Amino acid sequence: MPSSSSAAERTLRSAYWTATRTGTYGFLSTLPLLVAYEVMIAVANYGSGRPVRIGADVWMKQIVALLGGPAPWVLAGVVVAIGIGILVYERGSNIPLRARYFTGIIAESAVYALVVAGIVGQMVAAVFAAWPSPQMAHDLWTQLALSIGAGLYEELVFRVLLVGGLFLLFRWMFSGETTAYVAAAVIGAGIFSLVHYVGALGDPFALDSFTFRFLFGLALNVLFLLRGFGVAAWTHALYDIYFTLGVFG
Predict the structure, then answer these.
(1) Does 161 map to a domain?
(2) Contact 213, 196 (CB under 8 A)
(3) Which residue from 9, 54, 80, 172 puts its CA 20 to 30 A from 243's CA?
(4) Whether pLDDT at 215 is above 80
């Protein structure tokens, strides 16, 4: 028979997995990313004649501006307001707020960022005989700010809005949830990869980098659907930070 201590450990793990998938933890765990990005990118752009921001951030700000939001920080305010709304909505669900759960999200994501990038990179290298290595076009501070922003805003756009929206659509179209999950994850990954080559600031198209981004996006979609927004956002941000710091060589 299993010991009482092992049963208690399983209960604690189950509570962690359940709680950290909620919108409450998704919002609270990514607040540091929001603050860090907005402060760091403001410092990076101070006095610059050509300010830079994450593309997904710019798209969302343009939409907010069309709705009458003139302030440059209005998007951050909207994100915080939505997060507070989620907290209020989930208040009756008795979600435990524990500091170790937030530490667990970051530690879990740090491992995913290393493992997923390693597996996907090796797969792409095996097919194309080269590891795709996008060039960094900015100084270290700016690149770190953009890495953090990508983890937050690209996950908001491509995981929460795109994949989440596709899942709801496909769940209505198809009879089984599994089909909806798979279709949303695959199509979302394709769109996520393609947008990196769109527009004047897009990268030149290359099949190896497209494949890497598709597979990495697919992995992030799976993490989002299984583990929630917080883990997906931190995994994306930490991968980009690892890359910026040369962790992958």
Answers:
(1) yes
(2) yes
(3) 80
(4) yes
Q: With CA atoms as reference, report the closest residue to 186 among 218, 223, 154, 220.
A: 218
**Rounded to 5 degrees, what angle do the CA atoms 119, 156, 77 make?**
145
- Looking at every residue in the chain, the average pLDDT score rounds to 85
Q: Which domain holds residue 79?
A: 4-244
Residue 85 in any domain: the answer is: yes
Question: What number is the average pLDDT over the span 205-229?
Answer: 92
Q: Global pTM?
A: 0.88
Is residue 249 assigned to a domain?
A: no
Look at the chain and report how many structural domains it folds into. 1
How many residues are recorded in the chain? 249
Instruction: Look at residue 176 and give its three-state secondary structure.
Output: coil
Measured distance CA(160)–CA(152) in Å, rounded: 11
CA angle centred on 230, ends 224 and 236, rounded to 5°: 70
Q: Measure the CA angle with vertex 122, ends 141 and 239; round to 5°.
A: 25
d(CA 146, CA 56): 11
Burial class (CB in 10 A: 0-12, 13-18, 19+), 75: buried
The 10s digit of each residue's pLDDT in 68-99 is 655 556 667 777 888 888 888 888 788 888 99
CB contact at 8 A, 121 and 212: yes
Task: Name the token pair of 111.
Answer: 């491992």
**Average pLDDT score over residue span 155-174:** 91
Distance of alpha carbon 220 from alpha carbon 243, whole angstroms? 16
Residue 240 within any structural domain of the chain: yes
